[in-house]
């Protein structure tokens, strides 16, 4: 299973990077959220996708899946959500002010 | 703290005092307040002569950074005493001269004296320090104070140019020297110069020995204006004349010579040292004398003559180092004659060059120009100045009965001796040494004559001058008169110096030459019979007069070809090219495009990781521990990959947003399948809110003119993103294959209920075991919320700076 997951992560990452390299601000933000997904899945995968019960002690199972990466991913989801929403509002504001979302037009000035 | 420490630090402290008092006291020229400092120091060093003659100047330590072996230790031997006397003595005369030279109403005199005192203290520190780090510190302080003094008239463009040039070149050399010091101390295990000298025998064969020698010589050559680093000295002539007289003739430019003399005991006896020091010295000697001949500005002429004379002294120290080759045999003392000549000429040059600079200053002061083409016929108007100029210039030319004659004879003796050496390949090229020396002496004679005759003889051109020339006031004349009388006194009674100053200095430069109790024979005779040296001098005079006459008529050597290639042009072009080049390089990659920067980042990421993977023998993939593949998972994986791969080709933004949202929901499904209920919940909510936010903003975006523009597929982007994806895939595989040790999660599973009383292990980790993370994550959300609020609240009607 890890093999296929690794492939999925690679594809997510590649597409994310491709979008980040594009001109449009919106696509860049979409790219970052794809990269974020890839990283979350990577965290989950490297902890081994062993079958076991969900990490709830009420299940009274023989073995549980690793709870630590889940806690890490949860923290990461929240942080990336905060950052993405801020980034998005920033992009929206930039668009409103400057009338463009083309990164090539958002360069600094020559003499700086 | 010894008296020597006080002698070094007194000028530095007095500089602070002068800065304060100089502004407060308007009535009196600040120079009078400063004058006692060098006078007292000079007196102190005079009183040290008998002590140093006995050979125990003594080492005085003052701990500074003992843990690094850096102590402010000072050591007084013949060499440092000689330099200290020069620095304080000429310093005294220069301060006296500058009192009359600088107008206290028109110039910022207190600033001048602050810089001068800093320089004096730094220079004393250079020659007295025993610790190499302290020596380097003072060395840089001389560079800085010299920089400040050259740019004293900072509103002139030429002054700032000259100051910058001298700073760049001397600091370059200073840093090279610093590296050389570090190498020496690494080899000898000590920062003390004396201990390095004591260990010479052990460090000679070390691989760092030669680099250290070259780097230290680089420092010495840049400071002492040796070819090709001499170019800063003529431009440093923009400084006030007292500064030129003090720094750029008598003291600072001799710091490099001091360095060579000081490290002679370490490096002498090596052919590389011999050839580098004498070679650079001889090159500088002849080049400086040729260039000096062609100058029309008096100070520029003196600058090139200083360069040339410094080359002479440098080459003599190089030739003298040959004696170390014979340590212990009778031949050794034969070659020490060169060192005697070097030390003697060092003193002589300081006297006559100081006097000549002051003469030029007086001429400038009284006529308003230093241009030889506008000067002439001043002899009758300025008889005293003329007399001093004649004494100084004749001494410089090496004419009897002045001291320059004696050191020139000794110089000829030394070069004739060197030509006879039969080791270090001297036999092939050695013949050139006396020839170069002789030709350079002819040129020296010529420019010395130009200096006197063009300035003071011939027909006066009063209409070309700004002022009516007349004799200088007494005060201006005191210092040059004292120096000129020294020139004459040392000329007639050279043995005043021989055992008081020259012999101890030689003992410091060549410490291993003599067994204890012996002394060098430095008896200098005024007349030494009809030998080769006398005939060489006669030849110099004859041919010199001839060239002077011809030169007058035909302006020989002034043809355009000599102007075409100059090192100044190389320096200027080099500096400009350097600036242009670095700006071009910076502009080539700092494009301002985010896309380019992201490409650099990902390319570096891919390359470094690929290198690391290849270097560590590739990724080991061990499928044995992998979980089995289930049907549901495969379905999600396929649909995930399929939908995401469409994304780059989607033109419509709305569809792109929805596909991204889809991938988020599929991640949620993964979390469900991999038994992470809390993650699934959070992911679903977050994805929903994000997509809502995206759509909200999408809806509100003012216009969507870019939306329908066809997407261009970029190969570079594609290659980089595919490579990045591939590397991450490899990384994921490698990381999940290799588990080095068991997870610590068993502890959480076991203790979650016992210790924290919760059954949801993930939640217990979040708020109990690792609650700190959660607190800060809440903070992140809070900051994001405030940020968004602030962003939205900014009045969109505001003018944004720089975007109008």
Automatic annotation (TrEMBL), chain A:
The subcellular localization recorded is: Cell membrane
Q: Which keywords has UniProt assigned to this entry?
A: Cell membrane, Membrane, Transmembrane, Transmembrane helix
Which stretches are transmembrane?
6-21, 28-49, 69-92
Q: How does it sit in the membrane?
A: Multi-pass membrane protein
Record's superkingdom? Bacteria
Q: Which InterPro entries match?
A: CPA3_antiporter_subunitC, NUOK/Mnh_C1-like
| Keyword Membrane listed | yes
Per the record, GO CC terms?
Answer: plasma membrane
Q: Spell out the family assignment given in the record's similarity comment.
A: Belongs to the CPA3 antiporters (TC 2.A.63) subunit C family.
Q: What name does this protein carry?
A: Na(+)/H(+) antiporter subunit C
Annotated source species: Paenibacillus lemnae
């Amino acid at each position: 299973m890890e093999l296929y997951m690794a492939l999925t992560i690679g594809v997510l990452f590649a597409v994310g990077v491709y979008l980040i390299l594009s001109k449009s601000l919106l696509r860049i933000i979409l790219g970052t959220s794809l990269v974020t997904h890839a990283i979350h899945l990577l965290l989950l995968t490297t902890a081994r996708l062993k079958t076991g019960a969900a990490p709830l002690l009420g299940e009274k199972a023989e073995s549980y899946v690793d709870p630590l990466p889940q806690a890490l991913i949860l923290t990461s989801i929240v942080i990336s959500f905060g950052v993405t929403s801020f980034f998005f509002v920033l992009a929206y504001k930039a668009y409103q002010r400057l009338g463009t979302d083309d990164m090539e037009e958002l360069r600094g000035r020559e003499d700086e | 703290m010894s008296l020597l420490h006080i002698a070094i630090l007194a000028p530095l402290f007095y500089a602070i005092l002068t800065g304060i008092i100089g502004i407060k006291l308007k009535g009196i020229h600040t120079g009078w307040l400063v004058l006692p400092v060098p006078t007292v120091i000079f007196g102190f060093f005079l009183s040290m002569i008998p002590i140093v003659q006995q050979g125990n100047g003594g080492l005085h330590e003052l701990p500074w950074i003992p843990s690094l072996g850096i102590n402010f230790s000072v050591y007084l031997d013949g060499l440092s005493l000689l330099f200290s006397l020069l620095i304080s003595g000429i310093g005294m005369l220069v301060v006296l001269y500058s009192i009359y030279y600088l107008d206290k109403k028109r110039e910022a005199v207190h600033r001048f004296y602050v810089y001068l005192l800093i320089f004096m203290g730094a220079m004393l520190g250079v020659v007295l320090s025993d610790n190499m780090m302290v020596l380097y510190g003072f060395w840089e302080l001389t560079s800085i104070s010299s920089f400040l003094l050259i740019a004293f008239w900072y509103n002139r463009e030429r002054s700032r140019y000259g100051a910058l040039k001298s700073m760049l070149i001397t600091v370059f050399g200073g840093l090279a020297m610093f590296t050389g010091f570090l190498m020496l101390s690494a080899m000898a295990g000590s920062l003390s110069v004396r201990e390095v000298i004591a260990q010479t025998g052990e460090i000679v064969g070390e691989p760092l020995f030669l680099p250290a020698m070259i780097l230290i010589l680089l420092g010495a050559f840049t400071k002492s204006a040796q070819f090709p680093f001499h170019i800063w000295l003529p431009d440093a002539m923009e400084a006030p004349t007292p500064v030129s007289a003090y720094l750029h003739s008598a003291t600072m430019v001799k710091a490099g010579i001091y360095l060579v003399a000081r490290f002679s005991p370490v490096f002498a006896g090596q052919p590389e040292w011999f050839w580098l020091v004498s070679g650079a010295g001889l090159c500088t000697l002849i080049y400086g004398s040729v260039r000096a001949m062609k100058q029309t500005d008096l100070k520029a002429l003196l600058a090139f003559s200083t360069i040339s004379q410094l080359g002479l002294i440098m080459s003599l120290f190089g030739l003298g180092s040959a004696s170390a080759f014979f340590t212990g045999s009778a031949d050794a003392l034969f070659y020490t004659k060169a060192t005697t000549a070097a030390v003697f000429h060092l003193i002589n040059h300081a006297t006559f060059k100081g006097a000549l600079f002051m003469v030029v200053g007086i001429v400038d002061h009284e006529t308003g120009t230093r241009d030889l083409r506008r000067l002439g016929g001043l002899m009758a108007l300025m008889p005293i100045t003329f007399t001093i100029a004649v004494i100084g210039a004749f001494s410089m030319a090496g004419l009897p009965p002045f001291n320059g004659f004696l050191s020139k004879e000794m110089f000829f003796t030394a070069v004739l001796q060197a030509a006879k050496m039969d080791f270090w390949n001297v036999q092939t090229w050695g013949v050139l040494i006396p020839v170069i020396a002789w030709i350079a002496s002819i040129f020296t004679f010529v420019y010395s004559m130009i200096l006197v005759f063009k300035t003071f003889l011939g027909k006066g051109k009063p209409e070309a001058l700004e002022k009516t020339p007349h004799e200088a006031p007494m005060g201006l004349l005191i210092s040059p008169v004292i120096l000129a009388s020294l020139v004459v006194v040392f000329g007639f009674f050279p043995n005043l110096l021989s055992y008081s100053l020259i012999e101890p200095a030689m003992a410091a430069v060549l410490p291993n030459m003599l067994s204890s109790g012996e002394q060098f024979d430095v008896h200098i005779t005024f007349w030494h019979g009809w030998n080769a040296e006398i005939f060489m001098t006669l030849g110099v005079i004859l041919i010199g007069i001839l060239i002077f006459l011809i030169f007058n008529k035909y302006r020989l050597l002034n043809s355009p070809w000599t102007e075409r290639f100059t090192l100044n042009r190389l320096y200027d072009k080099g500096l400009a090219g350097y600036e242009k080049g670095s700006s071009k390089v910076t502009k080539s990659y700092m494009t301002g495009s985010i896309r380019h920067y992201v490409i650099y980042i990902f390319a570096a990421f891919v390359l470094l990781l690929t290198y690391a993977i290849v270097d560590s023998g590739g990724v080991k993939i061990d499928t044995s521990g992998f979980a089995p593949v289930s049907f549901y998972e495969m379905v999600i994986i396929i649909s995930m990959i399929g939908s995401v791969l469409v994304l780059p080709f989607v033109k419509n933004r709305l569809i792109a947003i929805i596909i991204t949202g889809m991938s988020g929901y599929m991640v949620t499904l993964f979390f469900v399948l991999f038994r992470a209920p809390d993650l699934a919940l959070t992911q679903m909510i977050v994805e929903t809110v994000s997509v809502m936010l995206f759509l909200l903003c999408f809806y509100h975006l003012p216009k969507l003119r870019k939306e329908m523009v066809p997407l261009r597929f970029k190969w570079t982007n594609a290659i980089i993103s595919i490579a990045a994806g591939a590397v991450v895939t490899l990384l994921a595989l490698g990381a999940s294959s290799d588990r080095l040790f068991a997870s610590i999660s068993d502890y959480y599973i076991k203790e979650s209920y016992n210790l924290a009383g919760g059954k949801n292990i993930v939640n217990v980790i979040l708020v109990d075991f690792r609650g700190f993370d959660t607190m800060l994550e809440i903070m992140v959300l809070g900051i994001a919320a405030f940020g968004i609020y602030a962003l939205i609240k900014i009045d969109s009607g505001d003018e944004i700076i720089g975007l109008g």
